[in-house]
Amino acid sequence: MNELFELFSNPALIWAPGVSRGVCFIGSLLVIPWLVLRIPENYFSDDSRHRVPWARRNPLLRWLLLILKSLLVLVYLLMGIAMLVLPGQGLLTILIALVLLNFPGKYRLERRLFMVPTVRNTVNWLRRRAERPPLIFDGEA
Residue ranges per domain, the chain? Predict the structure, then answer.
């Protein structure tokens, strides 16, 4: 029992969760708006996703970058899940991570999530503050 008390009295174990919460919170405040502003206004205007023009040029480089991006986004997704109980914008972070990940049916899921009124209003509020046009969905002008 004494060893357990000594383990939890270690200053590093006391400071590490607080510092990680602070980093997650500050990181989410900086990264999330930047990512939301990078979404093209007409990204959700079609029923299917547009093909990226450079996708067929160098398949090896494309796969390498895709794997690297997926690993980084997985870390971001885990941070978003952690922010559900820690300070930060957990749901919005998870939403952005899902936008960045590649998986079958992703585009339909993105459209469905971004069409939820509270998510859509929040994203368009961020875009308005940065003087960017709101997201356009099919049938909208």
Answer: 2-129
